[in-house]
Structures are given as structure tokens and as C-alpha cells.
Amino acid sequence: MLEEMIARIEGCESDVKARTAAAEAEAKELVAAAQRDGLALLEKVRADALEEGRALRKEAEARAAEKAQQIAKVAGDESAALKAASRACLDKAAEFIVGRVVSV
């Protein structure tokens, strides 16, 4: 009977060792899977952020080009107005000079 109890205890001990080893192996696999999943997610987030950055840069460049066109148009309009005003002043200046030269 004592030998039977010892055998049962030894059987339980070996069962516990086997379960412990299986649990440790499963825990290691869970940790490895979590690390793989985490790295994959990190890589996806990095790729998404890079793509979003490219899209934002493209959008900013488009807005900058549009703003540059607006500025160029305003500058062209102002330039044309200044040219017209200076032509009017040239005519007056020429008349003034001719008037001064003739009266001398």
C-alpha cells in the first residue's frame, strides 16, 4: 500500500512537471506570438504614418502652388496698373519738359 501511494505521488509529481513544462512552452509561444504581432502592427503603423505624411506633403505642395499662382496674378495685375500709371506720368512729364524747353 505504501509503495502504491509513493507510485501515485510520483505519478502526480511527473504529471505536474509535464503540465508545468507544457504551460511554460505555451507561455513562451504566446510571448513570441505577441512579439510578432506587435512588430507587425508597429511596421503597419509606420507605413501608414509614412503614407499619411506623403499625402499631407502633396496636399501642402498643391496649396502652396495655388497660393503662388494667386500671388503671381496679383503681382501681374499690380504691375500692369503701375505700367499704365507710369505711362500717364510719362506723357505729363514729356509735356512738362517740352513746355519748359519751348518757353526758354
Secondary-structure element string:
H
Oligomer: single chain
What is the share of helical residues? over 70%
Given helix and strand content, the structural type is: mainly alpha
Number of contiguous helices: 1
Low-confidence stretches: none
What general outline do the C-alpha atoms trace? rod-shaped
Kindly provide the radius of gyration, computed on alpha-carbon positions and rounded to a whole number of angstroms: 44 Å
Tally the beta strands.
0
Largest sheet: none
- End-to-end separation in angstroms reads 149 Å
> How much β-strand is present in the residues?
under 5%
> On the 0-100 scale, what is the average pLDDT?
92
Explain this structure:
- There is one protein chain.
- With 104 residues, the chain is mainly α.
- It is 98% helix and 0% strand.
- It has one helix at 2-103.
- It is rod-shaped, with a radius of gyration of 44 Å.
- The termini are far apart.
- The mean pLDDT is 92.
